[in-house]
Amino acid sequence: QVNSKLGGSPCRQKHVVLLSPVGKIEISGCEAGVHEIKLPKMSALPSGAESSVACEVCEGAEEMTEPLQQCTAWLRAYFCEPATMGTLPVPAFHHPLLQRDSFTRQVLWTLLNHVKFGEAVSYKQLADLAGNSRAARAVGGAMKSNPIPIIIPCHRVIHSNGATGNYGGGHLLKEWLLSHEKLQKEKLA
């Protein structure tokens, strides 16, 4: 049963704030799934001490739904224990954009399922993977509207020339996430 902003009764959303190495990440969701992850805007990259911050829920812990618990566990693993990510379920999503069939949804699911931790893909390569090789600009639009960043890893989509490109959390956060994944992948290798 999926009731969302598209009609039907509205979801009873819960909110949780996760303190992470990149700042406070706001997560909202209902019993059916995660609606949105809001990233902090970074004005400076975290230094060594800040980047070792453990991921802890600092607001909303008492009323977390199962999807929010899965989401915070997944993000904690992403930042602090990447080797364990493969054992964790991806939480259910319940954002209207991810409910209806569209090219944006197809691109986001393709990204989630095919571009793994520590990898990067160009907008054009992602358009190819999603089945429309001439839709690189539309892929950019899909990245901009991604309601579940980090889990749906739009930070891994870069320009063909290697430039990182834009990011909802800002350029510094995108660079931090890419270098975090590169360093963690090297440690796991």
UniProtKB/TrEMBL annotation:
InterPro entries assigned: MethylDNA_cys_MeTrfase_AS, MethylDNA_cys_MeTrfase_DNA-bd, MethylDNA_cys_MeTrfase_DNAb, MethylG_MeTrfase_N, MGMT_N_sf, WH-like_DNA-bd_sf
Leading EC class: transferase
Cellular component terms (Gene Ontology): nucleoplasm
UniProt keyword annotations, A-Z: DNA damage, DNA repair, DNA-binding, Metal-binding, Methyltransferase, Nucleus, Phosphoprotein, Transferase, Zinc
Keyword DNA-binding included in the entry's annotation: yes
Residue ranges of domain Methylguanine DNA methyltransferase ribonuclease-like in the record: 19-90
One of the protein's GO biological processes: DNA repair
Gene Ontology MF terms: DNA binding; metal ion binding; methylated-DNA-[protein]-cysteine S-methyltransferase activity
Reaction(s) catalysed (UniProt annotation): a 6-O-methyl-2'-deoxyguanosine in DNA + L-cysteinyl-[protein] = S-methyl-L-cysteinyl-[protein] + a 2'-deoxyguanosine in DNA; a 4-O-methyl-thymidine in DNA + L-cysteinyl-[protein] = a thymidine in DNA + S-methyl-L-cysteinyl-[protein]
This protein's record includes keyword DNA-binding: yes
Coarse class of the protein's main subcellular location: nucleus
Coiled-coil regions, chain positions: none
Cofactors (names): Zn(2+)
Methylated-DNA-[protein]-cysteine S-methyltransferase DNA binding domain: residues covered: 105-182
Localization per record: Nucleus
E.C. numbers: 2.1.1.63
UniProt family annotation: Belongs to the MGMT family.
PANTHER family registered for this protein in UniProt: METHYLATED-DNA--PROTEIN-CYSTEINE METHYLTRANSFERASE
Its biological purpose: Involved in the cellular defense against the biological effects of O6-methylguanine (O6-MeG) and O4-methylthymine (O4-MeT) in DNA. Repairs the methylated nucleobase in DNA by stoichiometrically transferring the methyl group to a cysteine residue in the enzyme. This is a suicide reaction: the enzyme is irreversibly inactivated.
Protein name: Methylated-DNA--protein-cysteine methyltransferase
Gene field: Mgmt
